[in-house]
Write a structure and sequence with these properties.
394 residues, mainly beta, Immunoglobulin-like, 8-stranded mixed β-sheet, 1 helix, 31 strands, elongated
Amino acid sequence: MANANAVVPGSTRYYAPGTKVKLADYDDVITEPVAGLFMGWNTEADRTGTAYMPGDVITINSDLNLYPMWEYIITFDGNGNTDGSLPPRQISSGGTIVLPQQDTLDRQGYVFAGWTTDRGQFYYPGTTVEVNKSTTFYASWIKTYKITYDANGGDTGTVPVDNTAYMEDTAAIVKGNTGYLKKGSKVFDYWNTKPDGSGETYKPGDSIVVSADTTLYAFYTDPSGDIPIIFIPNFCELSYNGNMNDGGSVPENPTIYTGGTKVEIKGNTGNLSRSGYRFIGWNTRPDGSGLTFQDGDILTIPQDRDAVTLFAMWQKESGGSGYSSRAYLEPYHYYDFGDLKVYYISYISKEHDGETLLREQDDGPKGYEIYLPYCGTLYKSGYHFAGWKYETIK
């Protein structure tokens, strides 16, 4: 009777038909480096065959090929984070992983942008990546700066507070004397970047380009005659960011609007480009988790923000590794939720004097997050918009 072969990659052993064989561990039969966590043997390389564990006893009646099954460890490195962590994940060979958001990861003075590998490949959160080895993904951070206001000897009143994290070369609107600063009998006059007044001078409502942490110091003057009351509109700056582009330029910016202004979003007018990627639109967050806008969409400038930045979104070109960036939903459209029961949210304004809501209805299945809109152009004379209250419609 002819011999039967038991074959594993890199090792062949011969047995007489009917022989009972105790399967070996990986290290006992193969000298190649371990690729990950060894999870046993399979009769098919793609794991669709019969699985065996080391120590199993089988009867050899014909030639048999056995392939090692691997599990790979995916770890997430905070890369300088000051808080939070992400647990490692275990993925089967040939499987995929959807790269997560930052979760609890945080780095003081930075905003999270996505993930990189030790080879420098960048991925947005939500990108699906094929796993062929144990891999560490490193958090990618973008440096941000802050503006601090200093009373500079003022003895009454309070300084303005700006909690916005500004990316480099972003323009900000200088705040006014919102806390009624005074210094003895002197009244507030302007801000300066140096406490002795030798720096750059800014008046409330001026635009300042932020390229480092900046402190603005108050300066005062003697009141003379009638002191005018100055009303400063709520200015908001709209700017565009290339978000890791390596060619082209963003649309002309910055542009400053008053709150409530409706602005038509620009397209890729400066032919932004990024090697291996194509431009797919704009988003209010660099990782694509905010609101998405396309050329010609209308953005209502918020009443309570000093700045809005739209970041270029990129999608991996087809071919090559086959990876693609996360697909982002367009804002304020309706979607097919299959067989799930869909719930509707309607926005109803009573006793208003304005025109229209930003949008009139949202929908989604139970558990789906809905971001409530601003009030659009609605207003009520003598009142400020404070928020929404809800009633459940049965």
